[in-house]
Amino acid sequence: MEEITSEAQLRELLGEPTPAALGKERTALHELDRAWLAASPFCLVATSAADGSCDVSPKGDPPGFTLVLDDRTIAVPERAGNRRADGYRNVLANPHVGLIYLLPGRTDTLRINGRARLVTDAGLLDRMVVKGHRPVLAVVVEIEQVFSHCGKAFLRSGLWDVGTWQPDAVASRARIAQALERPEESLADLERYYGPGYAQGLYPAS
Fold first, then answer.
1. What is the pLDDT of residue 206?
2. Which of 109, 150, 151, 144 is nearest to 26 (CA)?
3. What does the pLDDT look like over 90-111, one tens digit per residue?
4. Residue-range domains of the chain with CATH
5. The whole model's pTM is what?
6. What DSSP character marks residue 134?
């Protein structure tokens, strides 16, 4: 395959960004950014290890789950998961993180880049209790860049267009788990595990 190996080649293909695109970066939250964070129930957190290997982890909770500590600092709680901690191990080796915040139905997004640290401050975690669940840690991000991102990718993909949704286009979560992760378990058991009761374990008592 023909490969691009320099920024000059890249710019020749893509052209230069507009002044508006370059100038929209900020180093602190605007009141509109605060409003977005207060309304967003979901974000993606990108991290990189010291060796350059990458991870992107989804984070979701009721709207406003990300706490704004001040105009340059936010905090994201850790909820019960699979305990792999890929992103958190990355943060310990390389604090640089990138976050994209979504609003269901909106095609634009909010992007935040900065430096992260893992904290267990009791006063902070007490502010993040949801349905009786107190997180065991939080990711505190010191903001270096924040800006809004246009909705072209969401428009092209039709992500929020219900008419395009095909949840049954691929195997169910239970079938994927049996084929790739838990072959020793029966499909019936896995379907029960991933069934209606699965949501009951989202906020285990701390």
1. 59
2. 144
3. 999 999 999 999 999 999 999 9
4. 23-157 (2.30.110.10), 166-198 (no CATH)
5. 0.94
6. P
Asked whether 203 and 79 are in contact (CB, 8 A), the reply is yes
Query: If we measure between CA atoms, which residue out of 25, 101, 89, 26 comes closest to residue 60?
Result: 101
E-state strands within 23-175? 42-48, 54-60, 67-70, 73-77, 96-102, 109-119, 138-149
Matching residue, tokens 């982890």: 57
* Tokens encoding 10: 């890249």
- Give the position of tokens 């007490």: 126
Q: Which residue from 100, 32, 43 is spatially nearest to 71, judged by alpha carbons?
A: 32
Q: What is the pLDDT of residues 149-183, one digit of tens each?
A: 999 999 999 999 999 999 999 999 999 999 999 99
Q: Report how far apart, in Å, the C-alpha atoms of 15 and of each of 11, 20, 148, 190 are.
A: 5, 14, 21, 50
Tokens of 159: 């992500």
Identify the CA nearest to 67 among candidates 135, 168, 149, 162: 135
